[in-house]
Design brief:
Layout: H1 14-27, H2 35-45, E1 54-55, E2 61-65, E3 74-81, E4 84-92, H3 103-111, E5 115-116, E6 121-122, H4 127-133, E7 141-151, E8 157-174, H5 175-184, H6 189-207, E9 217-222, E10 228-233, H7 237-260, E11 263-267, H8 273-286, H9 296-299, H10 308-317, E12 325-329, H11 364-378, H12 384-389, H13 393-420, E13 427-435, E14 444-450, E15 456-461, E16 469-478, E17 483-487
Parallel strand pairs: 1-8, 2-8, 15-17
Antiparallel strand pairs: 3-4, 4-7, 5-6, 7-8, 9-10, 11-12, 13-14, 13-16, 14-15, 16-17
Helix pairs in contact: 1-13, 2-4, 6-7, 7-11, 8-10
């Protein structure tokens, strides 16, 4: 699922800065790295990693990331091979820098994930690693875990292998730069093949029942006059094509681990039939034709988020993807017996077994899953430190993931409240994208997305027509309380609502 990326300039208003600091304290985000952790990171960064690695600096890798990114986990190169393709995917070898049982290892376990805020981010690893020695920066020799995945002409995986290697990225590209090159026909052959593979993998995803949702991302932009504005950023096609490279690698990794009987997989249960039934009612209310014989995975790709009714439906569809987690197997259990893999470990949104192995600079679990895959590929035992950590990792990732999601969600409320603070009482054009289940309450409660600025917030009114345009009045914009509220004119005020816009379910992450 897309996430709403928020960025503020250093000159953010004092009330926003204060509210973000308060939120960080409430959520319990770690602040500075302890001195012993920084010293260990500096020593790790100074190592020479060339010995014992395959030299693959001949491969012309590039990285593709949002503008300004420095924590570069992945570098890609795609080539043709006969009637098929070879995907070389270099992943930052974080395992080469983090000594098991050390101070850095303990701190990274405490953090779990990199947390992104509008003013700054709370990194998983010290910057000397995440934006320096471990990052796949262009023109630099870097230790990496190199995946080589072969595909046939249809894009189906025919083989996968991985090894520790030394690589050198040629260029740091943004999504917009790559998309412009592809549109103009000036992109490199590798990037053109990446687009081909991405399209093929998208088709296979649909065929196996996987789901991709085109939900616009919300961004904060700074205008030339120094003021801020909110907008919805449409994702570019290359973003999904590039994501398919990560997904196919995660699918290949899951297959390796499943076959070996030891692994860490990312899971997502099938949608609750009650949620699917509710979504069908929503489709009828929005005038969207959804034949009884058509699975929702086939319907969703036909919808376009810029159509108000479709946007409302896509928003509702995200509720099908709740309950994501991790499952560990193949390590000794409490009784000493090896924990067997569950019968069903599929990730419902991907419609396949899947593992997180492509973002180790930003996500703790990827380092462990990668070490398992390296051992399986080499035919060697999985390291003892990995097996010892596996039972606790699902819980660690669940807790740190909840913390990150809560912080990022409430950051949006802070920014929205700041940008709307002087407009209380004004009316706006909006689209109703969510309505709470009918329970006899008057007024109804739900959520709207404004046409301008690009705000999504709570609304109450005597009648909330899902998917339709309405005129709403801003009744509250409180930065300290992290709350924005609208009413349909004529609706009585209501109290007792909690701050925030509600939790967003997780999808294909």
């Amino acid at each position: 699922m897309p996430t709403r990326q928020l960025r503020l300039a250093p000159s953010a208003p004092d009330d926003v800065t204060s509210a973000l600091a308060t939120l960080r304290a409430e959520i319990g985000l770690p602040a500075m790295f302890p001195q012993d952790v920084l010293e260990e990171a500096r020593a790790a960064a100074a190592q020479d990693f060339a010995a014992g690695r395959a030299d693959r600096r001949d491969i012309e890798f590039v990285t593709i990331d949002p503008p300004g990114s420095k924590d570069l986990d992945q570098a890609v190169h795609v080539a043709q091979s006969g009637e098929g393709y070879v995907v070389h995917y270099a992943i930052a070898d974080v395992g080469a820098f983090v000594a098991p049982g050390g101070a850095l290892d303990a701190e990274v376990r405490r953090r779990g994930v990199t947390v992104y805020g509008p003013d700054a981010r709370t990194p998983l690893h010290p910057k000397i690693l995440s934006e320096g020695a471990a990052s796949l920066l262009p023109g630099e020799d870097r230790p990496a875990v190199l995946w080589t995945v072969t595909l046939n002409a249809r894009g189906i995986i025919t083989g996968a292998d991985l090894e520790r290697a030394l690589v050198r990225s040629r260029e740091r590209l943004t999504y917009a730069e790559v998309q412009s090159g592809l549109d103009a026909g000036t992109a490199s052959e590798s990037l053109q093949l990446l687009a081909d593979v991405g399209r093929l993998r998208q088709s296979l995803e649909v065929a196996r029942g996987g789901v991709s949702l085109e939900v616009p991302e919300q961004e904060v932009e700074r205008r030339e006059d120094g003021t801020y504005a909110l907008s919805f950023r449409r994702t570019l096609p290359v973003e999904e094509w590039n994501a398919q490279i990560s997904l196919l690698t995660g699918i290949a990794a899951a297959h390796l681990m499943r076959e070996a009987g030891v692994g860490l997989l990312r899971t997502l249960p099938e949608a609750d039939p009650r949620d699917v039934a509710r979504l069908r009612r929503t489709a009828r209310a929005l005038g969207i034709e959804w034949p009884d014989t058509l699975p929702y995975a086939r319907l969703l790709p036909t919808l376009v988020s810029r159509v108000p009714e479709h946007a409302a439906f896509l928003n509702e569809a995200t509720t099908l993807f709740r309950g994501a987690g991790y499952v560990a197997f193949g390590m000794p259990g409490p009784d000493g017996a090896v924990v067997p893999p569950p019968e069903d470990t599929r990730h419902a949104a991907i419609a396949a077994d899947y593992a997180h192995v492509t973002a180790p600079l930003r996500r703790l679990v990827d380092r462990y899953a990668t070490e398992i895959c390296l051992a399986v590929a080499a035919g060697t035992p999985v390291p003892a430190w990995v097996l010892e950590a596996m039972p606790d990792l699902p819980g660690v990732m669940a807790e740190t993931g909840r913390r990150a999601a809560s912080f990022e969600r409430e950051c949006i409320d802070i920014v929205e409240a700041s940008l709307l603070g002087d407009r209380v009482g004004e009316e706006f054009d909006a689209v109703v994208v969510d309505v709470e289940e009918e329970d006899g309450r008057d007024p109804q409660r739900g959520q709207v997305v404004l046409r301008d600025p690009a705000v999504r917030a709570r609304v109450s009114g005597p009648r909330l027509p899902l998917g339709e345009e309405v005129r709403v009045r801003l009744t509250e914009a409180d930065v300290a309380e992290r709350r924005v509220r609208f009413t349909v004119p004529g609706a009585p005020p209501r109290g007792g609502e909690t701050p925030g816009t509600g939790g967003a379910p997780e999808g294909r992450s």
